[in-house]
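User: I'm curious whether this sequence folds into something compact or stays loose and floppy. Could you predict its structure so I can see for myself?
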Amino acid sequence: MKISGRIWLENDDKEKLFGIGICDLLKGVGKYGSLSEAAKQMGMSYNKAHNLVKIMEKRLGFSVITTQIGGVRGGGSTLTEKGFSMIERYDKLMEKLNKDMEEGFNLYFSDLDKEREIE
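Assistant: Here's the prediction. I'll summarize afterward.
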C-alpha cells in the first residue's frame, strides 16, 4: 500500500494554473527547444500544447515561453525566466509535499500492511 495524489495550482475561480502536465511540457520545451517537439514526446498534439500554454499564461498573467517562428534554423521555443522559475518552484513544492505525504502515511497507515498479512 502507498499514498499518491495529484497537486496543481489554481486561482480563486478554481481554474487550473499549473500542474504536473504543464510542468512536464515546459521541461520538454527546455530540453528540446521546441513546443512542438515537447508535445510530440508527450504524445500530445501541438495544437493542444499551444492552447494549454496560452490559457495558462493568460491565467498566470505572464509568459512562460517565447517562440520564434521560422527562419534559417526553423524557429523554436525557449523558457522565460518565469517559466524556469515555475518549474523550479513546482518541483520543490512537490518534493516537500511528497515527503510530507509519505511521512504522514507511515505515521497513520503503516500498520495496515501488517494487519493484512495476519488475515
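Summary: Residues 37 and 43 are 10 Å apart (CA to CA). The chain is about 60% helix and 15% strand.
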